[in-house]
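Problem: given the chain below (141 residues), write out its structure.
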Amino acid sequence: MIRRPPRSTQSRSSAASDVYKRQVMLEAMKERVDYLHYLKVAAQLMEFQRIAAEIKVDLYTEKVKGMYDEFLRQQAEYYKGEKVLRKLEDEINNRIKCINDKLVEMENLNKENEEESPGSKQTLRKKHKKTKNKLKEDEKE
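Solution.
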């Protein structure tokens, strides 16, 4: 609390006046020191916030980079698996084609054998149709 000079002392150079002046100067200095301390603390706080923001950005960047690396790794595995699947699919298609070719070849051989053999069903059917047609022709005449 600031001490005021007594009212009875009119002179500016009295001891009470000197005490009052010193107190006012001390208060002003205290306020200035408090203000400077406040500025210093505020500057430190701003610096801490800047550093924290940089750290946060760095951490976020690292997190994003890690996620991107993981994505690239998974994509590489996917394409690697896709290549393996394509290879297997091509191999299966080739085998199916070979089997189909052999089936066609066997069917052709069976047709040739049936046509060549005199007792085959197809040959007998043809003969039967011919005889039937002849009989019908004979009946008409």
